[in-house]
Automatic annotation (TrEMBL):
Family stated for the protein in its record: Belongs to the HAM1 NTPase family.
Enzyme Commission (EC) number: 3.6.1.66
Top enzyme class: hydrolase
Biological role stated in the UniProt entry: Pyrophosphatase that catalyzes the hydrolysis of nucleoside triphosphates to their monophosphate derivatives, with a high preference for the non-canonical purine nucleotides XTP (xanthosine triphosphate), dITP (deoxyinosine triphosphate) and ITP. Seems to function as a house-cleaning enzyme that removes non-canonical purine nucleotides from the nucleotide pool, thus preventing their incorporation into DNA/RNA and avoiding chromosomal lesions.
Name assigned to this protein: dITP/XTP pyrophosphatase
Binding site for Mg(2+): E42, D71
Record-level Gene Ontology MF annotations: dITP diphosphatase activity; ITP diphosphatase activity; metal ion binding; nucleotide binding; ribonucleoside triphosphate phosphatase activity; XTP diphosphatase activity
Alphabetized SUPFAM superfamilies for the sequence: ITPase-like (SSF52972)
Keyword terms: Hydrolase, Magnesium, Metal-binding, Nucleotide metabolism, Nucleotide-binding
Record: active site: D71 (proton acceptor)
GO BP of this protein: nucleotide metabolic process; purine nucleoside triphosphate catabolic process
InterPro entries, per the entry: dITP/XTP_pyrophosphatase, ITPase-like_fam, RdgB/HAM1
Length: 198
């Protein structure tokens, strides 16, 4: 079994680090790959799984530690699942605000009943860079796309994602509440089971 006291998180996204560390608790210390390198690997895969594995291997190679990667995104029904794996790059790398503005515009005249969407999270854990058997866990979170941004918590597309089970946007949830029910929480729940942490 791998030493799980320290894991490298193969991500440069501070929002993910915060959420994943909160879910894991104090028994596992997540260290950002940013401690070793600021170069982000190109996400050349065609699926969340491929990109998660690619990021995890890259971080394990650079750090020499077991690595966890999170590849996630928003799949909007009306857009055939876009932006999907391209969620971070939807507005050509101009950041969260530009991504959200572009998405609101793409859904401008779409009626309520057709605004379904899901957040997707795939976690990949590798023991070392060439691990032939990465642990893969997936989580989905169903909701709807709002017609205007709302809320200040979270990151990324959270202000646009309406959460039916709480009747508010994902950015209006407290961090603790989001971490109980999100796509990332579901994937992490499976990962903890696979690792015997629960
Ligand atoms: O690849 P790393 O370095 O981990 O960081 P990233 O931000 O580029 O992460 P992804 O490639 O996985 O892209 C995820 C996209 O989906 C968005 N996203 C993922 N989880 C989210 C969440 O919980 N709430 C809001 N947006 C989320 C996020 O803002 C990005 O635009
Ligand atoms: Mg990325």
């Amino acid at each position: 079994m791998m030493n799980l006291k320290q894991l490298v998180l193969a991500s440069h996204n501070a929002g993910k680090l915060k959420e994943l560390q909160a879910m894991l608790g104090e028994s596992v210390q997540l260290r950002s790959i940013g401690e070793w390198s600021n170069v982000e690997p190109e996400e050349t895969g065609l699926s969340f799984v491929e990109n998660a594995i690619l990021k995890a291997r890259n971080a394990a190679r650079i750090s020499g530690l077991p690595a966890l990667a999170d590849d996630s995104g928003l799949a909007v029904d009306f857009l055939g699942g876009a932006p999907g794996i391209y969620s971070a790059r939807y507005a050509d790398g101009k950041g969260d605000a530009a991504n959200n503005a572009k998405l609101l515009d793409a859904l401008k005249d779409v009626p309520e009943a057709e605004r379904g969407a899901q957040f997707v999270c795939v976690l990949a854990l590798v023991r070392h860079a060439d691990d032939p058997l990465p642990i893969l866990c997936e989580g989905l979170w169903h909701g709807r796309m709002l017609t205007a941004a709302s809320g200040e918590h979270g990151f990324g597309y959270d202000p646009l994602f309406w959460v039916p089970e709480r009747d508010c946007s994902s950015a209006e949830l407290t961090p603790a509440d989001k971490n109980q029910i999100s796509h990332r929480a579901r994937a992490m729940d499976l990962l903890r089971q696979r690792l015997g942490l629960k």
